[in-house]
Design a protein that fits this description.
Layout lengths: L6 H13 L3 H12 L5 H15 L8 H12 L17 H4 L3 H10 L28 H12 L29 E4 L3 E3 L6 E3 L4 E2 L6 E12 L18 E9 L13 E2 L3 E2 L5 E2 L6 E3 L4 E9 L6 E11 L9 E2 L5 E2 L9 E11 L3 E4 L1 E2 L1 E2 L4 E10 L2 E9 L8 E2 L7 E2 L4 E10 L24 E3 L3 E4 L1 H14 L16 H4 L16
């Protein structure tokens, strides 16, 4: 034991040390205790990772040299004094007692409860995303080795320079050009969920501006160090989601439908929404923030909070190249989930009417939701673009890198598959014996891809594909996931005829 540890920390360390006696026993105990949604394949991959970790050798991995850089990149933004995380992971003294827990949570990787909260599966589909905090196999192995070899501290000289956080800035996408604050609401402990609208708030904008990103944060009076005393959807927050837009109001204070602009849904734990660089969204002068559905839930403590909406603008004079396109992809009305069954599938399809660039993939399920995949079907080709795990406690949107965004021709069929787990292995299910249908409540279901997309003209579509070929230096034998026609000019060039082909005579 170490001198600085409290009695509680010493007791925790004894539990962790006992769990670390055997990799296999530890994995089994953790699975049983947490009711985590492991499958046989995941358990095998976990054991393989532990074997990889052991290959590092005891004493080779130290906190300052190997672990601290990982924490700085992917953990400390939340897990620090004043951050949203439940414990600080800045100093060795703070981190070492939680080594076993850190190994477990990071090892979940792409399933509910994983840390950092990024659930993109790394074995299938596109792998290049903006602001990806996920850990590599080597980093996971280093954490496992460090946790199982006595958490060596190492030399202070090997430590990276400590990060300095400015808690006056709460925005991860950058300092907003405009912040609009909603009215405060109070949710009492133990009260049922509430759905409704919050007050309409003027943006205060005096001229139209094109928006390049929008970010929403909840500000409340919860003491994050003490917590709320209740583990619920959203943890320390009371806003589960807000469906919202901006609109002009008439003389009676009612929105004028023709002026309404919808914006990405706010959900608990959501990361910022960054629009395509050539496809911004217009925030009109004199408009109001209007809500269509706000879902509040108790976090176990009387809590007063509000939302702050931060807009970042393009330079004046900016004009978007691409238009936003709405693709209805999902099912929210006739879902049927049987009791005590897992791996139940939901399917939804939509045919693209225009050439389309997919900017983000954002699965939206409810408590039984475990996983969602996005496929593109073009001709005889069926290609999986992305598969991600789902955590109703921490909703994520996944923005593709600029040179990895799917470029899909009109006529492509988008297909989403949802995997539902209504068994006792899902900790979000209060009673897995119950059948579940559609509805707004977290214990009922929705099945939607809320991702953002833009449409392209014929010329823009071919220009984008040419740019993709150039940027990635593609050859005829390369393959681009999500761009079925990118290599068509290289593989099967079409000869240009000076005169049109003769019309075929009728049979």
């Amino acid at each position: 034991s170490l001198d600085y540890k409290s009695k509680t920390e010493k007791a925790m360390e004894k539990v962790i040390d006992k769990a670390n006696d055997s990799a296999i026993k530890s994995t089994k105990r953790i699975v049983q205790k947490s009711h985590s949604m492991f499958t046989g394949a995941f358990a095998l991959s976990t054991l393989a990772l532990l074997g990889s970790a052991q290959a590092f050798g005891a004493g080779e991995v130290t906190f300052h040299k190997d672990i601290e850089p990982i924490l700085q990149r992917s953990c400390q933004n939340c897990h620090r004094p004043g951050g949203a995380g439940p414990m600080s992971l800045v100093t060795y003294e703070e981190v070492a007692p939680f080594a076993g827990l850190i190994e477990y949570k990071t090892g979940l990787r792409d399933r509910a409860g994983a840390m950092p909260p990024w659930y993109m599966e790394k074995s299938i589909g596109i792998q290049r995303y903006k602001n990806d905090p996920s850990l590599s196999d080597a980093e996971l192995a280093a954490i496992s080795t460090w946790a199982r070899s006595g958490t060596p501290k190492g030399e202070v000289a090997d430590a990276p320079e400590a990060l300095v956080f400015d808690d006056s800035v709460k925005w991860t996408a950058g300092l907003p050009d405009l912040v609009v604050t909603t009215n405060s609401v109070t949710k009492l402990a133990g009260t049922p969920d509430w759905w409704g609208e919050i007050d309409r708030v003027p943006t205060g904008l005096t001229e139209d501006r094109w928006v390049k990103s929008v970010e929403i944060v909840e500000v409340n009076d919860v003491d994050n160090e003490q917590g709320t005393g209740r583990d619920t959807v959203g943890g320390r927050y009371i806003f589960h989601h807000m469906i919202w837009g901006t609109a002009d109001l008439d003389e009676n204070g009612e929105r004028i439908p023709s002026t309404n602009t919808s914006w990405p849904v706010h959900e608990v734990g959501r990361n910022p929404d960054i629009f395509d660089p050539d496809g911004g969204r217009l925030l009109k002068a004199g408009t109001y923030i209007v809500s269509d559905s706000v879902h509040l839930h108790s976090n176990g403590k009387d809590t007063t909070g509000h939302l702050e909406i931060g807009f970042r603008f393009h330079e004046k004079g900016y004009e978007p190249k691409y238009e936003r396109v709405n693709v209805g992809l999902g099912n929210g009305v006739d879902i049927s989930i049987a009791g005590n069954q897992r791996d139940q599938e939901l399917h939804a399809y939509s045919v693209l009417q225009q050439h389309t660039k997919i900017i983000t993939f954002e699965p939206h399920l409810h408590a039984p939701g475990e996983r969602m995949c996005l496929e593109a079907i073009w001709g005889y080709t069926i290609e999986t673009l992305s598969c991600v795990g789902y955590d109703h406690n921490w909703v994520r949107g996944y923005a593709y890198d600029d040179d990895a965004t799917p470029l899909l021709p009109k006529g492509t069929i988008l297909h989403i598959v949802g995997y539902m787990n209504n068994t006792q292995t899902n900790p979000n299910i209060p009673d897995p014996r119950n059948w579940q249908g559609s509805g707004n409540r977290s214990v009922t279901n929705m099945f939607i891809d809320l991702g953002m997309r833009v449409s392209m003209s014929e010329e823009q579509f071919f220009d984008e594909m040419e740019k993709r070929r150039s940027d990635l230096d593609l050859g005829p034998n390369d393959h681009v996931i999500g761009c079925p026609l990118c290599l068509a000019p290289l593989v099967a060039p079409i000869a240009q005829s000076e005169s049109p082909l003769p019309e075929r005579e009728a049979d």
